[in-house]
Amino acid sequence: MSVACVLDETMAAAVRELRVGEDQYRYVGDTAFNLADSLRDPMSEAMAVLDDDRVVGFYRLDFAPNAVAGRPMHAPSVGLRAFVIEHDQQGRGLGTQAMVACCADLRRRHPDRALLVLTVNCNNHPAIAAYRKVGFVDTGELYQGGSAGPQHLMYFPLH
Ligand SMILES: CC(C)(COP(=O)(O)OP(=O)(O)OC[C@H]1O[C@@H](n2cnc3c(N)ncnc32)[C@H](O)[C@@H]1OP(=O)(O)O)[C@@H](O)C(=O)NCCC(=O)NCCS
């Protein structure tokens, strides 16, 4: 069972050690960099994914209105960025569970936010399948700002 929580310094050290497959870095970048970037930003929250108290993943919640899509959405939103599950823990259902936990956490701590929004590279088929499985909806809009090519813009209704 995986849970999502705002990370402390011990968890941050473990997050810096997270690795993905060689072919996955183009989609998510380096997690130690993403963590530092997130901790520097007053509009972001750095989140750890835990499985039995062990850090197995990371994501960033970005509360800036233009986060993710480069423009405000049609309802108050929060961006999901830099989501990773440790490479040797992928495919066990942890990513799906983490997203369910993320939505529950947002409803509890940020009930004003109506949408969880993300972009995902059009070639990142495992991630697209994982987001669909959780219930994310594809807007049908392509975001062209990604460094590795066009991205689908997807959202999850929190209310
Ligand atoms: C995307 C990611 C977070 C998913 O986490 P995960 O723990 O592997 O996902 P789950 O085990 O919960 O799998 C959920 C669904 O995703 C799909 N999926 C996961 N791994 C897959 C793979 N290697 N190939 C195809 N589909 C896959 C399946 O539909 C799966 O459902 P199923 O097991 O019922 O078939 C993880 O693969 C990851 O960290 N990838 C690298 C970084 C990345 O691309 N992040 C997303 C940036 S937008």
TrEMBL record:
Pfam families: Acetyltransf_1. InterPro entries: Acyl_CoA_acyltransferase, GNAT_dom. It comes from Lysobacter arenosi. Residues 4-159 form the N-acetyltransferase domain. This is GNAT family N-acetyltransferase.
